[in-house]
Amino acid sequence: MFNLILFGPPGSGKGTQSEKLIASYGLIHLSTGDLLRNEIARQTPLGLEAKNFMDKGRLVPDEVVIGMISSALDNNPNAKGFLFDGFPRTAAQAEALDKLLTLKQTSITVMLALEVGEEELVQRLLKRGKTSGRSDDTNEAIIRERIVEYHNKTAAVADYYLKFNKVVMVKGEGSVDEIFAGLCKEIDPRV
Ligand code: ADP
To answer: At 30, which helix (H) or strand (E)?
Structure first.
């Protein structure tokens, strides 16, 4: 299996690039942000709990997202690989993911980390907020809180995979196609 983590701060383009990557490489896209927004739209108990955190720009508790990913893995027994987008976001999530993949006799192949400057992130998210219908993108204070959460909790996930020599940095600024080409250059020799 080819299991990819697309990593980077909020607004770094993970969602955009994921769409192109799953089309090219036939991977199953697992976006915890999308899975959570789907739970909110269906007004499930999980969605109602998650909404309280997401509206404040905070991370949803680990056990909630780990449970969601575990079910998603079980629901796709014949996948040739997964693209993890927005997960893992804490060291505890990374450890849990390793255990889940080991149970399936597979592992993370590589983490590709998109690098984008902080002001560019805020500008992109505010722009997305005008059309995305996402309330967490319209308020600059919430956007900045998400970036703080990223630095406090999520940046450590890259350190976790660095220990296993699985992290590659990719330039996240430029055109969508240029960034996609940068990602493909790292994936092609590994698939
Ligand atoms: P972005 O990358 O722009 O922040 P996402 O759609 O990935 O957007 O996430 C939106 C929100 O969903 C996050 O701010 C957080 O509250 C919640 N969320 C998504 N993935 C996770 C996760 N793995 N762990 C905890 N919270 C998460």
So the answer is: strand 28-31
Question: Does a structural domain hold residue 36?
Answer: no
The closest-lying atom of ligand 1 relative to the alpha carbon of residue 125 is: 3
Give 171's strand partners. 115
Percent of the chain residues past pLDDT 90, beyond the cut = 98
Mean of the pLDDT values across residues 124-135? Answer: 92
Nearest CA to ligand 1 atom 23: 87
Domain annotation covers residue 103: yes
Using a 6 Å cutoff on CB, does residue 10 contact ligand 1?
yes
Range of the domain at 19: 2-27+79-190
Write out the catalytic residue numbers.
14, 89, 128, 134, 146
Angle at 99 between CA 25 and CA 39, to 5 degrees: 65
> Could you tell me how far CA 91 lies from the centroid of its own chain?
14
Please give the model's pTM, rounded to 2 decimal places.
0.95
Q: How confident is the model at residue 154 (pLDDT cuts 50, 70, 90)?
A: very high
Taking the C-alpha atoms of residue 79 and residue 141, their distance in angstroms, rounded to an integer, is 39
Residue 134, domain CATH: 3.40.50.300
Instruction: Answer whether 87 contacts ligand 1 (Cβ < 6 A).
Output: yes
pLDDT tens digit string along 49-98? 999 999 999 999 999 999 999 999 999 999 999 999 999 999 999 999 99
Cβ of 142 less than 6 Å from ligand 1: no
The answer to the question of residue 69 being in a domain is no
What is the tally of structural domains in the chain?
1
